[in-house]
Amino acid sequence: MSAFPILSRFQQDAHIKTVEIEPGQTMDEVAAACAFHSIGLHVADKPGRTLRVRPTTEDDSAPPWPRDLTVEKAGIRFYDCIDIYFEEPQ
Amino acid sequence: MLERSEWYDIARDTNWTPSYVSQEALFPPEMGDPYGIPTEEWETFDEPYKVSYREYVNIQREKDSAAYSVKAALARSKFHDEADEGWACVLKLHYGAVALTEYQACQFQARMSRFGPSPAMRNMSVYGMLDELRHTQLQLFFPHELVHRDRQYDWAHEAQHSKNWAVLGGRHAMDDIMMTRDAITSSVMVSFAFETALTNLQMIGLSTDAANLGDHTFANLITSIQSDEARHAQLGTPTIEIMIRNGRKKEAQQAMDIALWRVWRLFSITVGIPMDYYIPLEQRHMSFKEFMHEWVINQWERQVQDLGLERPWYWDIFLLDIDNHHHCQQGGIWSWRPTVWWNPPGAVGPKEREWLEEKYPGWNESYGSYWDVITNNLLQGHEEKTHPQCIPIICNMCQIPISHRPGPEWGARAYQREYGERRYNFCTEVCRWIFDTDPERYKDHETIVDRMYSGEIDPPTLENVLKYMGIGVISEGGRDGHDYGWVEGFRAQAAE
Predict the structure, then answer these.
(1) Domain end: B325, B342, B359, which one?
(2) How distant is the Cα of B399 from the closest Cα of chain A, in angstroms?
(3) Of the N and C termini of chain A, which has fewer Cβ atoms inside 10 Å?
(4) Which of A2, A10, A16, A56 should be substituted to probe chain B, the one whose Cβ sees the most B Cβ atoms within 10 Å?
């Protein structure tokens, strides 16, 4: 299976963007791919904060996927919408 | 000669009983009245504004003479040489979006004049049809003389023949409400929801702005068109009254709700962005939000209730959208400026931001955070970082990028629906609801983004996508209309 588009709902961005990801990518790699199209373009960076990925839900309450989980194992499909957000400092 | 009042009603109401074909063959329900309302009920149709053909021709001839003579008198003026590019954007956007939409409206009126179940409706819509034809001619002819100055004005003629993403949005909505409905439903949708609620008012606001800026040719043109709109928009009111009286309130309500939202999403871009961003700060006569609240929320809503309908179920979403939609799309259109046929200025320098914060409290914390990043990139000489290398997902109903309030409130959200073997994305619950009212009607259309992944735009490279949309073919795409001059205020502030 090759690259396919997902909907990147990046925290504080005005737009939901299509970003192509690959089944073997980890969540950290997905977060980086989405950050490339938002941070420094429409969203200010928050240095030192970790980006996490979770499925988009109505109340933004879904837990994040493990950072090393792959796209394939997370079951992310064509046009799935995912949240990419800055993790609160521990 | 008889006075009009002595012969008008009988002439207008003349109807006939067909003998060579059936009534249904002459007026097929799918083209005229699908609700089965009796003919005698339609014969009570009484439009508020009355005019005879003789009067109509005399009035229209005078209007045309006035519009064309002002244009001729000002043809040698240097207005367009000296006008702000922001105002040029208003004109390019307006002509591209509106000129041939008027011709669609001409066909919509023609359908009413042929298939309308009421003789009075058929009579009035003949004038409406002639109105819309005149508007098409005016709005194709006036920008034509500007093409030699700037090729982007050619979109007045070309836009509706292109597959530009912004045109797809307009065409999808107009095909839905104006081109593919029966005479009765489209009368509610276009005459009442579109023209009465929004277009007529848009014309009033736009002509005021044009006069303030000294563009008397355009002000005169718009005033001339508005006076027609004010008359033929009244076709919707008696239609709704008859529908309600005959047990079809639910259908009238749904038609109005669908159309208002569909047109609102476009109207906010073609009017909201110009009012709050393109028109130079010194010449803005009111904010878009003030305009909407004064003319639509206060006045049109009262008309809806007087008629016996309810305000649309999504009223709270609509009010929220007035505060947000055009600000989001100003950011999006500016960011993806090479994809449009005008040169959108960012227009968010220190003074403009102060004005936006005053008119839209909280703008700085939300939209300001978005523009801060862009402004910093420009101040640091990184113009290339203001061009996204991806595309926003597009709503499968309004065909506009799915966006919402940025910053801490983070409102952007895709509302999805699985239907058949496809997944559809919508910007709001309202666009998804419209899809749900008749999925079979809407299911096959593809957004510009869908086309990139379905193989219609192959390969979907930036160059190919732009060419597919007519950019570089009809004219060059957009750039910042003020060559980033609006960031200089921040540079000066930093120097102090």
Answers:
(1) B342
(2) 14
(3) C
(4) A16
Interface residue ranges in chain B relative to chain A, Cβ cutoff 8 Å: 328, 331-332, 335, 367, 369-370, 372-374, 377, 385-386, 388-393, 401-408, 410, 412-414, 416, 423, 425, 449, 453
Is B41 a domain residue? yes
Strand order in the sheet with B391-392: A51-55, A81-86, A4-10, A17-21, B391-392
Domain enclosing residue A46, as ranges? 4-86
Residue A43, domain CATH = 3.10.20.270
Binary contact (A18, B367; C-beta < 8 A): no
Is there a contact between B367 and A37 if contact means CB atoms under 8 Å apart? Answer: no
d(CA B115, CA B133): 19
List the beta bridge partners of residue A26: A70
- Residues of chain B with pLDDT below 50 are none
pLDDT attached to residue A1: 62
Point out the residue among A7, A11, A43 whose CB comes nearest to the CB of B414.
A7
B182 and B267 assigned to the same domain: yes
Q: Is residue B349 part of a domain?
A: no
Gyration radius of chain B over CA positions: 23
B474, part of any domain: no
pLDDT tens sequence across B78-133? 888 889 999 999 999 999 999 999 999 999 999 999 999 999 999 999 999 999 99
Bridging pattern class, strands A4-10 and A17-21: antiparallel
Beta strands in B273-403 (DSSP E): 391-392
Reported ipTM: 0.97
pLDDT digits (tens, 9 = 90+) for B231-279: 888 899 999 999 999 999 999 999 999 999 999 999 999 999 999 999 9
* Cβ-based neighbour number of residue B2 at 10 Å: 7
What residue numbers bound the domain in which B462 lies? Answer: 407-468
Mean pLDDT for all residues in chain A: 96
pLDDT for A83 equals 98
Residue type, B192: F
What is the domain count for chain A?
A: 1
In a domain, B288, yes or no: yes
Q: Are residues B334 and B419 in the same domain?
A: no
Task: Measure CB to CB from residue B412 to each of A5, A9, A40 and give the nearest one.
Answer: A9
The answer to whether residues B195 and B323 belong to one domain is yes
pLDDT tens, residue by residue, B365-403: 999 999 999 999 999 999 999 999 999 999 999 999 999
Copy the structure tokens of residue B488.
């200089």
One-character DSSP codes across A54-70: EE--TTS-PPPPPTT-B
Which of B328, B385, B414 minimises the CB distance to A14?
Answer: B328
Please give the pLDDT value at position B14: 85
By the 8 A CB rule, do B329 and B403 touch? yes
| Minimum CA–CA partner of B427 in chain A | A16
Domain count, chain B: 2
Q: What is the CATH number of the domain that holds B260?
A: 1.10.620.20
